[in-house]
Amino acid sequence: MSRTCTVSLFQGPGNGFTSNNFELEPAARGEVLVAVTACALCRSDLHTIAGRRPCHTPAVLGHEIVGKVIETGGPVNDWNGRLLQPSDRVTWTIAASCHECFYCRNDLPQKCEQLVKYGHSEMGPRGPLGGLSTHCRLLPGTSIFTIPAPLTDQQVVPANCCTATSVAAVRRAGPIRNATVLVMGAGSLGVTVAEYSLREGAEAVVLIDIDSERLKAAESIAGVTVYHNNPPVDAMPEPLSQLTNGRGADIAIDVSGATSAVSSALDWLRTGGRAVLVGSVFHSPPLELDTESVVRKMLTITGLHNYRPEDLAEALEFLSELPDSARSLSLAGTAFSLSDIDNAVAAADSNEHLRVVVTPST
Predict the structure, then answer these.
(1) What is the CATH number of the domain that holds 16?
(2) Which residues span the domain enclosing 24?
């Protein structure tokens, strides 16, 4: 059956988007065709649009996606082994992996040698692989998840990037029960890392940002202490010092990507502390690392880029258990139609909303 697909094609930094219609081929064996009902604009999309992040163009951006199954190429199961059916509400991993290469065999499917990422690819001959489109083609090797019924599109749309990455960051941090966790950056990732850390048993979270408006949105989270680090200070912030008797945080998770924030996070760790760097996914000034301090303080520093399918499974469980008042369920704000993509990007770039949503098929 022939279908027409409408796509907002990104033409490159400074060139904006064009609206194009394509004939969508039927799903090949193992593929799934999805009608996109919601796509959130992630900070990495904004980096791409501004030219801070490389991307082949013209491209179909958007990787935080929710949709409804319209066709499968033969029997295709979701992550839990359930046979996918038309009209199923789904989300999926931000990339398709081969599950056979060196990295897939070593539990790093997000670094697959044959990796295909959604929302980062050129418009292929068989249809779009991104969310700024009325339809998206899911390739074999994609882990697909049926969305728990209580969650709305607005609540769940950040799950396959923001929430899953937050889960992965906490996992990478190691044992977190009774820990004091320092989170650098109070955007979508920072707020979600804070709430998930508490859910996993952290004793306290100190959330730091230079933007006071972002911090206000996190003040209502029980167990979170916010600190406005503007102008920046070198000394350990008083709330963190009080919580730890001056020792410093057990765990620091940086989601800001700012070199100065990473440096401060390492300085404010206790001896034996652990740092997870998540936000440094765009070019920024190099970090001057005091290796003697790392050695003498016996610090552990690890990086995280994207996540494993298990993290998305956990993310959906986490979201489905949260009360409606949870901040992690209200990240997505204003919604725009696909034809209004320019205004959607402007709204996302204004920082008035943690997430802006495009609704292509509604």
Answers:
(1) 3.90.180.10
(2) 3-158+331-358
Per residue in 273-329, pLDDT (tens digit) is: 999 999 998 888 999 999 999 999 999 999 999 999 999 999 999 999 999 999 999
At residue 133, the pLDDT reads 97
Q: Are residues 265 and 144 in the same domain?
A: no
Q: For the whole model, what pTM was predicted?
A: 0.96
Token duo for residue 168: 């992965």
Q: Does residue 323 lie in a domain region?
A: no
pLDDT score recorded for residue 56: 87
| Residue scoring higher pLDDT (243 or 54) | 243
Q: What is the dihedral of CA 127, 133, 134, 140, to 10 degrees?
A: 40
Domains identified in the chain, total number: 2
In angstroms, the CA 99 to CA 96 distance is 9
CB-facing half-sphere around the CA of 190: CA atoms within 13 A: 32
Among 34, 37, 71, which Cα is nearest to 157's? 37
For 262-288, write each residue's pLDDT tens digit: 999 999 999 999 999 999 988 889 999
Q: What angle do CA 64, 278, 274 make, to 5 degrees?
A: 140
The answer to whether 346 touches 324, Cβ cutoff 8 Å, is no
CB neighbours of residue 333 within 10 Å: 15
SS3 8: strand
